[in-house]
Design brief:
With 140 residues, the protein is α/β, with parallel strands linked by helices. The chain has one domain: Protein-Tyrosine Phosphatase, Chain A (Alpha-Beta Complex). 45% of the residues lie in helices and 14% in strands. It has a five-stranded parallel sheet with strand order 3-2-4-1-5, with helices on both faces. Helix 3 runs antiparallel to helix 4. The chain is globular and about 35 Å long. It starts with a strand and ends with a strand. The model has no long low-confidence stretch (mean pLDDT 96).
């Protein structure tokens, strides 16, 4: 399984797309609970259009997003609390279904998981990636 992750904090859509193409990614899997952003170009519709224009596939898997309490914990610098909250969330049926969908996608394509945080160690996407395989963490 060829698996990567990327965060878009402090960068642009063009830089993210370039990093994806440079790494040979074929499918961007958005693992945000709420696929909206104040950063230009990173809301679901605009982002999916940008990656499609570059020849990449896009899938949003809401069930792999962090619940609000987990997002709040990260904003307050409590990564350990986010990890506890997200780990409990991963036991839910929605999360398990979307994890299976991500696994199916990653079985046939080089997948990159996308979320906001630049540092993957402060983001739930590293937990998802570790459940799927051995990820490579990209930066843009």
């Amino acid at each position: 399984m060829d698996l990567s992750t990327i965060g878009y904090e402090g960068t642009t859509v063009d830089a993210v797309v370039a990093a994806l193409l440079g790494a040979g990614v074929q499918h961007l899997v958005d693992v945000r609970a709420v696929p909206q952003s104040r950063k230009p170009g990173f809301s679901k519709r605009l982002l999916s259009g940008s990656v499609a224009a570059a020849g990449l596939n896009y899938t949003h898997l809401r069930g792999l997003g962090t619940p609000k309490a987990g997002r709040d914990a990260v904003r307050h610098g409590d990564v350990a609390a986010m990890r506890r909250i997200f780990s409990a969330h991963m036991e839910t049926p929605e999360a398990q279904l979307d994890l299976a969908r991500a696994r199916d996608i990653a079985a046939g394509e080089h997948v990159c998981l996308l979320c906001f945080e630049r540092d993957h160690t402060h983001c739930h996407r590293s937990i998802v990636a570790d459940l799927l395989g051995s990820p490579r963490h990209l930066t843009a």
